Amino acid sequence: MVNKAKDISTEQKILEAARQVFFDKGMDGARMQDIADKAGINKALLHYYFRSKEKLFETIFAESFNNFFPKLSLILESDTDFSVKIEMICTAYIDQIHSMPYLPIFILHEVARQPESFLKKIWSSYPPPVKLFIKVVETAVKKKEIKPVHPLQVIMNIVSLCIFPFAAKPLLQQVTGISKKQFSVLMEERKKLVPQMIIQSIKK
Amino acid sequence: MVNKAKDISTEQKILEAARQVFFDKGMDGARMQDIADKAGINKALLHYYFRSKEKLFETIFAESFNNFFPKLSLILESDTDFSVKIEMICTAYIDQIHSMPYLPIFILHEVARQPESFLKKIWSSYPPPVKLFIKVVETAVKKKEIKPVHPLQVIMNIVSLCIFPFAAKPLLQQVTGISKKQFSVLMEERKKLVPQMIIQSIKK
DNA sequence: GTCTATAACTCGATAGAC
DNA sequence: GTCTATCGAGTTATAGAC
Fold this sequence. Notes:
Two copies of one chain form a homodimer.
Chain A: H1 10-29, H2 32-39, H3 43-49, H4 53-68, H5 72-77, H6 82-98, H7 103-113, H8 116-125, H9 130-142, H10 151-167, H11 169-176, H12 180-202
Chain B binds a DNA duplex through helix 3.
C-alpha cells in the first residue's frame, strides 16, 4: 500500500500504521511486519526510524495517554458555571473517543501491564489534570453550588459514563446486534444524557 | 511452588494458574512457561491436560465471560420492584468484580480481538441475558413506573458505573495515588450511590 | 533512506523415558 | 501422569549492498 500524498513523510506513515496495529492488537499482539506492511515499507526501515519495537510502542503509548485526557485543563480553568463545565467535559470526552474508539481498551490494557516507573516517566510529560478536577469539585461544594460529595466519585461517574460504552462497544455489538450507526446515535444522545445525570445527582 | 492441599487436582492447579497469568498478561502476553511455573508443574504437562495454549485460553475465557454477567437472570426474573432490581444488580456487579478486579480489562481486551465466530460459539454456552434486561426496562416504561427511556442507555449506565472504575483502577491509582484500601471504600460506597443515580435519572 | 538476507532468540509443541 | 530434552516456526533486530 503506497501513500498517495507524497508529502507525507515516512515517519508519519510509520506512526499512523503503528497506531492502528498497536490499538488493534496491543503491544504483545502487534507484529513489526504488520506495521511495516501497513506503512508500505519494510521491517528494516522501522528500526532505522525507531530503534526498537519498544521505542515505537512508547511513542504511540505516550501520545495516546495524552489523547485519553481531552483538553480538560482548558475546560476546568475556563470561567464558566460548574454545570456548564460538566457538559463541556462530557462532550469533549465523547467526541474525542468517538474519533478513536479503540483508545480506551488500549490505554486500560496497557496501563495495567506497564511497570510503575515507565508510567511515571510517560505522564511527567503528559500529566492528567486530576488535582485541578478535584479542586473544581471541592470549590463547587464549598460555594454550596452542589451537595457535599466525594470528588473522586463524581470524576469516576463522568469518566465511566462517557468512556465505558466505547470500551464495551465490541461486546455490546456482539450481544445486542446493534449496528455501527445505531451505536453512534446512542453516543450522540449521551452528550445530553450524561451531563443531566451527573448534575441531577449532585445538585442541592 | 507446590500446592499444600494434596487433594487439589493438577487440572485445578493449572486452571488457577492460567487464570492468573491470562488475566494479568492477556492471551498474547501470557507464556505457557509462566503458567507451568505458577502451577508447580512443567510445560509438557500443560499440553497433556489441555492440548494447546489456545484450548487453555478458550477454557479460561469462557468461564470468565460467564463471570462477567453475574447472576443477572435470577435478579431480573425475581418478583421485585424495578428499583429493587436495579439495586440488586449494582450490588451483584460490584461484589462480583471486586473479587476479580482484573476481569473487566481481560474481557474487554479479548472480546475486541477474537473473531466473531469464536465469540458466537462461547456465549452459545454462556448467553448474557440482554434480551431479558431490555424487556424488564420496557415493561417498567409501559407500566409508567419510569420515564420513557432507551433501554440500552439504562443498561449502559448501570454497567458503566459499576464496572468502569475497576477497569480504570490501575490508572486511577497511578494518577491519584490512592491506596488499595481507599479504592475498596469508594467501591463499597458505590453500591448505594450508583442505584440512587440510576433511579433518579429515570423516575417519573 | 531504503532494501534483501540472515543472525539470534523465544516460545509452543512433541518425542520418548520413567 | 509426569518428567527432560529438543525441534521447528515465528519474531525482533542487524549487517551490508545500493
